[in-house]
Amino acid sequence: MTLGRVFGLLDKEISGYEFSKNTIEGSSRRLFYLALPPSVYPSVCKMIKNNCMNKSDLGGWTRIVVEKPFGKDLGSAEQLSAQIGELFDEPQIYRIDHYLGKELVQNLLVLRFANRFFLPLWNRDNIANVQIVFREDFGTEGRGGYFDEYGIIRDIIQNHLLQVFCLVAMEKPVSLKPEHIRDEKVKVLQSVVPIKDEEVVLGQYKGYRDDPTVPDNSNTPTFATVVLRVHNERWEGVPFILKAGKALNSRKAEIRIQFKDVPGDIFRCQKQGRNEFVIRLQPLEAMYMKLTVKQPGLEMSTVQSELDLSYGQRYQGVTIPEAYERLILDTIDDGDVKPLTYQPGSRGPAEADQLLERAGYVQTHGYIWIPPTL
Ligand SMILES: NC(=O)C1=CN([C@@H]2O[C@H](COP(=O)(O)OP(=O)(O)OC[C@H]3O[C@@H](n4cnc5c(N)ncnc54)[C@H](OP(=O)(O)O)[C@@H]3O)[C@@H](O)[C@H]2O)C=CC1
Ligand SMILES: O=C1O[C@H](COP(=O)(O)O)[C@@H](O)[C@H](O)[C@H]1O
Questions:
Q1: What single-letter DSSP state applies at residue 298?
Q2: Which residues, listed in sequence order, are joined to residue 204 by a DSSP beta bridge?
Q3: Is 188 found in the same domain as 142?
Q4: Does the CB atom of residue 225 touch ligand 1 within 6 A?
Q5: Among 105, 135, 153, 156, which residue has the most ligand 2 atoms within 8 Å of its CB, making it the best to mutate?
Q6: For residue range 126-173, what is the model confidence (pLDDT) as tens digits?
Q7: Is 0.95 exceeded by the ipTM?
Q8: Which one of 39, 163, 177, 253 has the minimum C-beta count within 10 Å?
Q9: pTM for the whole thing?
């Protein structure tokens, strides 16, 4: 059966459904979500255009949704845009990044711009470094064919983590209109200076190449830590560390804002750790502020504790929508860089933690969180 015929049948199926709902022809809304590899976007879009469009214009519409990765580099992204752009008008095309649909990502602008106490702190005077981390405790399992073409940078960092970075680092938008938010994101991205080779650690977990869909000599990274430097008034000198890896020892996505040491520390408590504001996107949405308090008791000693907003506890009974429910770098050199090998189930290459240390992140030792009971 030809592709044209297949899409003809799809159209018939959709029309049948619309008819069963007593929809007047042309008044229905057709949304095509392309959960497909980007390489077939153009041919599938052509088939939709030729066979499956909403037939007349009585308030209905036809739209398509495409997911990242949108091409592999500037050239292929522009080519893809041009190919799809020939078939659909821009307002009909939705390019989505499902991380933007996550509850705590949606919360970022509110947190930053609706809370007075963050306003004076959110800058180079107070913040030592920012980490934006994505960790998965499983490998490419069954997706090696897709993944190997893209790697962790194009799969996670260039889109999901960069979107989060923009929301953390951008200036306040004029309003919440998408174009105003986009303008601020573009501005902060333009302020990112080219990444230095020595501020990148790439890794590949042992066993990745055993996947039959992965070439035996693949150099595709499954782990990357990258330091972004933002050359502007707010962020000069503050490293933004973007970290992503598969087959690691834990699964989480979080933003960790580490504050500078208190000057003139009369309590000599710096060894207990810096103040950190952590926004955990998943699992178990939470935000907590690690801070130093007096150890309860007779002694005047200090201990690290937290102000904790755990969503599961605070918003009991509230269903947090899945990211997909709500929505739907080229600064990195593409040269032949050999990733470092790391053990599956580990923290990734040790060099990544060393890079963090060089970038100024100070790991807290001895902090033990006592989870509250619900
Ligand atoms: N409301 C809640 O649910 C709360 C939960 N907690 C829990 O308490 C625990 C401790 O919290 P917290 O101190 O914030 O987080 P962690 O101790 O997990 O991590 C703190 C930082 O240290 C890094 N790190 C961890 N292990 C190493 C290592 N071996 N070498 C170098 N760097 C390392 C982490 O990197 P990386 O990001 O790569 O792992 C991260 O940047 C966590 O499990 C946290 O989830 C704490 C407070 C509130
Ligand atoms: O886009 C992708 O995201 C998933 C992780 O999504 P999450 O919502 O579960 O955090 C990742 O596994 C996949 O490789 C990537 O393509």
A1: S
A2: 341
A3: yes
A4: no
A5: 156
A6: 999 999 999 999 998 878 788 998 999 999 999 999 999 999 999 999
A7: yes
A8: 177
A9: 0.85
